[in-house]
Amino acid sequence: MRAPFLLLLALLAALLAAASGLDLHRLSQPVAGQAFNDADTVDTLREMVRIESISGNELRMSQWLADRLMGAGWDVEQQQVEPSRYNVLAYHPANRHRLKALFSSHIDTVPPFLPFSENAETMFGRGTADAKGSVSAMIHAAESLNSTIAAVEGVIDPTQLGLLFVVGEEVNHIGMRHANELNLHSVEHFVSGEPTESLLAVGHKGMWKFRLEIFGRAAHSGYPHLGESAISPMLDLLRELNTMALPVSDLLGPTTLNIGILGGGVAANVVPDYASAEIMVRVSTNLAEVKTLIERVVRDRATITDLSENEPFICDTIPGFNTTIVAYNTDLPFFEGDHKSYLLGPGSITVAHTDDEQISKRELVDAVGLFRRMAVHMLAQ
């Protein structure tokens, strides 16, 4: 029953969005005699990608962002999450508690760091797509709102849009969890910037990350009968998990399982007394169902330690935007409050986390216009 219910929610969101009569394209255009310099978005991303900000090492990126935003006239708060790790919140002066909408993304990246390079059409390097491209496009969309027809005609108040850039999304969402302490209770619309190929996501899968451990008994490898290998039963168990049937959602597709980290043993000539594996399950139906299925396979063959989890997430939509479904997880489920939630960003997830991470300069610049249209929609409500 869960999958049809999720599909019904998505269709309902689309119908409600269609009821809006705003001409977002016209209202997000510049007033006569002015033009947007969206190409500056490329320069901003270039600077950001040159700064290494692997999860846990985001300090330079946070400081650069804070300086960049303050230089453009924003009031900026740096919220300490852990020593040398800071979220960055930016808002128009005196509007801290009047924020109606937030653009948000993360400034941490997965390892390893990939240095920046580019050609005429494409930018390469860690974070170009996931998700510094979204950060750059969001900044420039927000800073150009004052020049839109919507602002000049009084349809929106651009000062009600804020920016929130967080640490730790790639690991445990610690930045967004701490952002809930910023008392952003006035926010009615929240946009998460992630690589969706510039399509508005209807929803994304949930996640269950857990660790398996097996303990054996060490012995000399010449006398294996005196020991008890922990690795051999771990391999048998992982083989079963990797081939088991997992549930499928009509809306979000199949639940998938990835064995991401495998460890154990100390030397080739020692029977290993310990083995571990960290596993990520992308959940398309619901956590309880998936956990029950996996726990039935594991039984008493290994210990299970929960590391992180959240249910699948259904997003809001906006009329005139093409939509998609994504299989990854985001910060959206971790930002608390009564608000609408949107997911969109330039770049493709298929190159994120790879050695070929990249983003099209054209798509990056076009994303500024998309975020500007989103801002008009949100602030005009």
TrEMBL record:
Top-rank lineage group of the source organism: Eukaryota
UniProt key word Transmembrane helix: no
Signal peptide: 1-21
Known cofactor(s): Zn(2+)
Chain ranges of the Peptidase M20 dimerisation domain: 202-300
Keyword hit for Signal: yes
GO molecular function term, any single one: hydrolase activity
Pfam families the record matches: M20_dimer, Peptidase_M20
Keywords, alphabetical: Hydrolase, Metal-binding, Signal, Zinc
Similarity-based family: Belongs to the peptidase M20A family.
Protein name, UniProt field: Peptidase M20 dimerisation domain-containing protein
Provenance organism: Fonticula alba (Slime mold)
